[in-house]
Design a protein that fits this description.
Largest sheet: 7 strands, mixed
Distance between the termini: 57 Å
Radius of gyration: 21 Å
Structural class: alpha/beta
Shape: elongated
Number of strands: 9
Number of helices: 12
Helix content: 25-40%
Length: 286
Amino acid sequence: MQGKIGNTSFVNKALKDNDLYAKKKFGQNFLTDQNILSTIVDSAEIDKDTAVIEIGPGLGSLTERLCSVAGFVLCYEIDGDLIPVLKNNLKDFNNYEVVHKDILEVDINKDIDEKLANYKKLYLVANLPYYITTPIILGLLSKTDKIKRYVMMMQLEVADRICGKPKTKDYNALSIAIKYRSDATRVCKVPRTVFIPAPNVDSAVVKLDLYPDKKYQALDEKHFFDFIRLCFNQRRKTLVNNLSGDYSKELINKMLEDNSIKPTVRSEELDIVDFINLSNYIVNNK
């Protein structure tokens, strides 16, 4: 569908008429490209059996399209000044709710159970605030397994890390943390010029599909996530050097030997199964 909300003239007029401006502290950049909005919604594959969570609906450019195809849309908006304008822009719809809360402080499972339990599928579709993109994604992935698909606009650099593969410059702890829960694909690149105001970087849309059953299982998940961050603490160092501040050289060398990994290895050379095996080894040999 071609939305009524969200082109450049609409956004400029809405901001001016309501004496609003994009607030840097909330990472607000309003998307104005109708084709990209369509790509985001189409890639999510939403139907009326689907409930959608949106973070930072802003003026409602994406929300309008989500309401048109989804059974229900639950929006979290931290900026109270935007909410009256958002509701006015969505006056043609009754299948949404706006919650005035910071998503990082929400009891997401409680909200899902109370508001969205009647829907067969639950997806998250959002243009995320760039300054807290990683905490939002990792926070939700660690708190709930009820959201089965994520389609998110984010800073291009973060998107590349999320989709990073072993032996590439983009591969890091975030790549592995995402891979532990889901399959990640980059949907499209988005130029900075299609936002008001234009951010300083280009963006990308990323799609995460959670595994229907747990594909990977670390013995101690908290240790695993802490461990992979430690492994990538300094990319230019070997794995041994990154770990030596927290574990004895004897344990590290024995761990690598028992897992048939060379002592000069760097973290970007290992895949997720390697990291799970190494984390499990340490848990078993503390």
